[in-house]
From TrEMBL:
Protein name stated in the entry: Purple acid phosphatase
InterPro entries: Calcineurin-like_PHP (IPR004843), Metallo-depent_PP-like (IPR029052), MPP_PAP (IPR041792), PAPs-like (IPR039331), PAPs_C (IPR025733), PAPs_N (IPR015914), Purple_acid_Pase-like_N (IPR008963)
SUPFAM superfamilies: Metallo-dependent phosphatases (SSF56300), Purple acid phosphatase, N-terminal domain (SSF49363)
Taxonomic superkingdom: Eukaryota
Record Gene3D superfamilies: 3.60.21.10, Purple acid phosphatase-like, N-terminal (2.60.40.380)
Domain Purple acid phosphatase N-terminal span(s) in chain numbering: 90-159
Family label: Belongs to the metallophosphoesterase superfamily. Purple acid phosphatase family.
Organism: Stephania yunnanensis
All copies of domain Calcineurin-like phosphoesterase, residue ranges: 179-364
Catalytic activity field: a phosphate monoester + H2O = an alcohol + phosphate
Enzyme class: hydrolase
Membrane-spanning ranges: 12-35
Keywords, comma-separated and alphabetical: Glycoprotein, Hydrolase, Membrane, Signal, Transmembrane, Transmembrane helix
Length: 455
């Protein structure tokens, strides 16, 4: 199923595949188990006050003059989309979480000419691969496009350091110290390639991808499927070697007015768009669908119940991921997440969520710890205020897609906005232990982790 460099300390995340009824603003909640210690989060995204400035001390709008390649998609014949050599060679290989207990992964790949085998062999590192699992495959048609044969294989009962292979071995091990990357709105431009290559160099162990994957919806008819396939090969350089946890965004909706067809989860890579629920020694992950955030909707009831179960004596780290940001000072998509904020912000404060990640806006921005849960128009108390129980809101919609950067921020910079910059990049949250973590945003231009303070 391809080849690549072995990597250590892979995080085997958990999953439950959920149906998705609507894709925009889908939140994903992560809880990292440990002691009930109110954490210290070191934030590295403000280059002027490196080392020691606490989050919330001084807001900053970056003056960086960015460089970027054109936002056009990379031509299909480029080596970034190289088709593996050999008849019916597997392609678009990717790994995601597979169960509640952190002892399973799902391996997915595509064979272009015929189904071939769905068998995966695996075993402990340093030993023979004497275990095997049998997967399933499916395919589909859309307009005149015929997909390849899409395989999924569940490997369960994994313990310790394990590897698996179809034609080549992919080793994994489990560890307590780990790095999680956050990215979204990637697409398949040269800027996208720069983001992906910078992430691979970072030593991250898994990726939370928060929607807007291939941007194939910009194409028509057969080219939609072709551009999903090219994107699958594009990200394979990393998805074949470590888990990516997928959520979905508005660009996963394909509308074909001439054939009166709406595809909510484009079938070519529907397996990429899996939301997860899982429990492990170090992490628990709830996946929710943001379509029904009105009071007493099924999701509203579910989220209230699940948050109430979180035991902060065991879970000091609580992250939420959604596609559309609840707080953003960029003119593009301004206040699109307001209804979500009204519905859920008080819960995020009540349960002391640490970080909320979003995409959608093609720029980077970090807030202070603020809330607007006492919004009252009659008393004019309708502005965000400092709140130590509130999360930090981080927008990293700067993956590099064909729409380019959202360079126009609102002026003056709102008091809740700590740092903002319209540049391509990715972010890393490094869980050091049960009480400490380091957060970094890495700009593509210079590959530098922009430094900041501590909270």
């Amino acid at each position: 199923m391809g080849s690549g460099r072995p990597r250590s300390c892979r995080r085997l995340f958990n999953s439950l595949v959920l149906s998705i009824h609507r894709l925009i603003s889908s939140p994903l909640i992560f809880v990292f188990l440990g002691f009930n210690v109110r954490r210290r989060l070191y934030d590295d995204d403000d280059d002027d006050d490196a080392i020691s400035a606490p989050i919330g001390r001084a807001k900053k709008a970056s003056t960086v003059i960015r460089s970027e390649w054109p936002s056009d998609d990379i031509p299909l014949g480029h080596e970034a989309f190289a088709i593996p050599k050999g008849y019916n060679a597997p392609q678009q290989v990717h790994i995601t979480q597979g169960d509640y207990d952190g002892k399973a992964v799902i391996i997915s790949w595509v064979t272009p000419e015929e189904p071939g085998s769905s068998k995966v062999q695996y075993g402990k590192l340093g030993h023979q691969y004497d275990l095997s699992a049998e997967g399933t495959w499916s395919n589909y048609t859309f307009c005149k496009y015929n997909s390849g044969y899409i395989h999924h294989c569940l490997l369960d009962g994994l313990e310790g350091s394990l590897g698996f292979y179809d034609e080549m071995a992919y080793p994994f091990s489990r560890c307590r110290h780990y790095r999680i990357a956050r990215s979204s709105d990637l697409g398949q431009t040269f800027n996208s390639l720069s983001t992906l290559e910078h992430y691979i160099q970072s030593g991250g162990q898994t990726v939370l991808f928060v929607g807007d994957l291939s941007y194939a919806d910009a194409y028509r008819d057969n080219d939609i499927g072709i551009r999903w396939d090219s994107w699958g090969r594009f990200v394979e350089r990393n998805t074949a070697y470590q888990p990516w946890i997928w959520s979905a965004g508005n660009h996963e909706i394909d509308y074909m007015p001439d054939v009166v067809e709406v595809i909510l989860l484009y079938a070519a890579l529907a397996d990429f768009l899996m939301l997860a629920i899982g429990i492990q020694q170090w992490s628990i992950c709830f996946a929710i669908n943001a379509a029904g955030h009105l009071t007493y909707s099924p999701q509203w009831i579910w989220l209230r119940q699940e948050l109430s179960k979180v035991n902060r004596e065991q879970t000091p780290w609580l992250f939420v991921v959604m596609h559309v940001p609840m707080y953003s000072s960029n003119d593009v998509h301004f206040m699109e997440g307001e209804s979500m904020r009204v519905a859920f912000e008080s819960w995020f404060v009540q349960y002391k969520v640490d970080l909320i990640f979003a995409g959608h806006v093609h720029a980077y921005e970090r807030s202070y710890r603020i809330s607007n849960i006492h919004n009252d128009v009659s008393t004019r108390a309708c502005f965000p205020v400092p709140d130590k129980s509130a999360p930090v809101y981080i927008t990293v919609g700067d993956g590099g897609n064909q729409e380019g950067l959202a360079g126009k921020f609102r002026d003056p910079q709102p008091n809740y906005s700590a740092f903002r910059e319209a540049s391509y990049g990715h972010s890393i949250i490094e869980i050091k232990n049960r009480t400490h973590a380091i957060y970094r945003w890495v700009r593509n231009d210079d590959g530098q982790a922009i430094c900041g303070g501590e909270d």
